[in-house]
Amino acid sequence: MFTTKPTLIYVCLSAFFLEGCGSLTHSEFEAPQVSIPNSWQQQKVDTSTNIDPWWKKFGDAQLDSLIQTVLEQNSDMALATLTLQKARLQAGLSATDRYPDISSSTSGSKSKDLKNGDTSKSYSTSLSISYELDLWGRVSSEIDANKWAAIASEEDREATAQSLVSTTASLYWQIGYLKDRISLSTKSIDYAKQTLSLTENQYRSGAVTQLNVLEAKRSLAGQESTHSELLQQLHEAENSIATLVNQPLDNNVVAINSLPDRQIPAIKAGVPSDILVRRPDVKSALYSIKKALATKDATFAAYLPTVTLTGDLGSSSSQLSNLLNNPIATLGAGLVLPFLEWNQMKINDKIADIDYQSAVVTYRQTLYQAYEDVDNALSAKEQYDYQATKLKEQYDAAAAAEKIYASQYRYGAVSIQDWLDAQETLRESEESLLENRYNRYNIQATVYQALGGSDIAPVMN
Q1: Which residues of 322-333 are buried (b: 16+ CB within 10 A; e: fewer)?
Q2: Which runs of E-coded beta strand occur in 62-181?
Q3: For residue 143, with 0-12 CB atoms within 10 Å meaning exposed, 13-18 middle and 19 or more buried, which class applies?
Q4: What pTM, to 2 d.p., does this model score?
Q5: Least confident segment among 36-45, 82-91, 197-206, 424-433
Q6: pLDDT digits (tens, 9 = 90+) for 193-210
Q7: All domains of the chain, ordered by start, with CATH?
Q8: Gap between the Cα atoms of 103 and 106, Å rounded
């Protein structure tokens, strides 16, 4: 019987001391330089601004609960989690290449002497070792590539989570907005029916012509048609919510009855541009560059000479003692010269370089898109805030005008078409005011998402 532990340690240490050429093929990473337009650099955010988790700033417990449910049960989130788990396993699998491949076998036999009847037993144990010296850093580069791929996958999962949060909030508010629109439409239809009834009475008394009645009917029919469209939009929005949470509609996933009318949270002026590096898509693109760089190094190193130590160690031989004295000579060094495949090496190296350059371009494109997203969102927020004031003024004027037209029509001072037009103007003004509030909620969420933030994806077990 023998102990293999000291032997293995000695073999491994000897192999590691032989390495050291890997630095020759290791490329140092340098972050790509990106020129930012001056107009974007002017959009700044206070470093003290805390936007995590941003949706809780709206003070809506039901929205908070819905988002938590989506993050825990959504199918896209589950797929992103599985992708990350696979990437981590692949990274762990590549890391095993750092260590020797070891296998062992044990055999035994029993024999009996035919002359004297004595029985003898014999046992043998063998240990096989195979280890590739990472002379040029190929193994370490492959490990790095898989590591960065796993980290990039983690950011992709985070991007999925942040996108789901924004989508969930938007759908939640859309349902409230549509229910408010339906409520307005119901009231407007009731008013149109009253108008039609009044006109029919006037027609029977000879005060107006049949044309007035037809105009009133046309207005009512148009509003009822629009009402039907709103009901369909609400049905589709509720189905979308059900899909997000992987639950059937009859579970009453969301029960918002109206678009919230509370104060929309403000964002402090002066957000630093470097806050965008918190965005998961930007971080993922950066990690993809590091992965491509490591893959490029591994591709080149694969065409350099490799040395593999292999051997069989038996417990009944003198190899064990020889191994301790001269491990490389005992195991045997196999030298492979793949650099003879020169043309293939050059092609594969160029392909790897193109992949790296593509990753750099993607990173710049992603960063530019991040700046564009923030700039557009902040600009839209400013415009929606301005429009809110003007739309309120428009609604107040339309409401006052409709009352005057209603009074004048009853006294025959204006035509029914004038009154119907005033009703339509008032209805559109009220709908525009409601839509503006919905847009201001949405754009606030868009600003938060564009700025990025701390990780919100559920912690993996």
Answers
A1: ebeeebbebbee
A2: 101-112, 119-133
A3: buried
A4: 0.70
A5: 36-45
A6: 999 999 999 999 998 899
A7: 5-20+37-104+123-313+341-451 (1.20.1600.10)
A8: 11
